[in-house]
C-alpha cells in the first residue's frame, strides 16, 4: 500500500460540486424581504402603474412602436411569471415565520412553567410564614395582654395592700 490510503482518523475531504452553493439563510432572508414587499400597498401601486403604462403604450403608441398588441400575450406571460415566483417566496416566508413562532412558543411555554413553579414556591413560603405567625405574638395580642395587666394593677390599688414590712 502507498502509505496514503484510506485514513480513518481524518474526515473525508469534501467533493467539489458543479452546482453553485448558496446560503439557505440568506436565501430565506431575501425571500422574506420580497414577500414583505409583495404584501404592501406600494407594490400594488407600482404594479398598477406598470400595467397601466404597458396598456397605454401598446394601445396609444404608433403602430410601429407597439411591442405587445391587443391580446397582450407578453404582459400576461410576465404577470404569470411574477405570480409563479411570488407564491413560493410567500410560502417560504410563511414557513420561516411559522418556525420562528414555534421557537417563541416553546420559549414562552418554558417561561410559563418557570413562573408557575416560582408562584407555587412563593405560595408554600407564604403558607409557612402564616403558620409561623400563629406562634408569634401579634400587636393586638400584646395590647390585650397589657390591657389585662393594667386592669389587674388598677384593681390591686383599690384593695388594701398587704405588706410584710412593719409600719413606721
Automatic annotation (TrEMBL):
This is DUF1003 domain-containing protein. PANTHER family: INTEGRAL MEMBRANE PROTEIN-RELATED (PTHR41386), MEMBRANE PROTEIN (PTHR41386:SF1). Pfam families: DUF1003 (PF06210). It comes from Streptomyces niphimycinicus. Keywords: Membrane, Transmembrane, Transmembrane helix. The keyword Cytoplasm does not apply. It comes from the Bacteria. The chain crosses the membrane at residues 43-60, 72-92. The lineage of its organism: Bacteria, Bacillati, Actinomycetota, Actinomycetes, Kitasatosporales. InterPro entries: DUF1003 (IPR010406).
Amino acid at each position: 500500500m502507498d502509505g496514503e490510503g484510506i485514513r480513518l482518523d481524518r474526515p473525508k475531504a469534501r467533493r467539489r460540486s458543479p452546482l453553485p452553493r448558496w446560503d439557505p439563510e440568506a436565501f430565506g432572508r431575501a425571500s422574506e424581504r420580497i414577500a414583505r414587499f409583495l404584501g404592501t400597498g406600494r407594490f400594488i401601486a407600482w404594479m398598477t402603474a406598470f400595467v397601466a403604462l404597458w396598456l397605454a403604450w401598446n394601445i396609444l403608441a404608433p403602430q410601429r412602436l407597439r411591442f405587445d398588441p391587443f391580446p397582450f400575450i407578453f404582459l400576461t406571460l410576465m404577470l404569470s411569471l411574477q405570480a409563479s415566483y411570488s407564491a413560493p417566496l410567500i410560502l417560504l416566508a410563511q414557513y420561516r415565520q411559522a418556525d420562528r413562532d414555534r421557537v417563541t412558543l416553546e420559549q414562552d411555554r418554558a417561561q410559563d412553567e418557570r413562573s408557575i413553579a416560582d408562584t407555587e414556591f412563593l405560595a408554600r413560603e407564604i403558607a409557612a410564614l402564616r403558620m409561623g405567625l400563629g406562634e408569634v405574638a401579634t400587636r393586638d395580642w400584646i395590647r390585650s395582654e397589657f390591657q389585662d395587666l393594667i386592669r389587674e394593677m388598677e384593681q390591686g390599688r383599690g384593695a388594701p395592700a398587704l405588706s410584710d414590712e412593719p409600719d413606721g
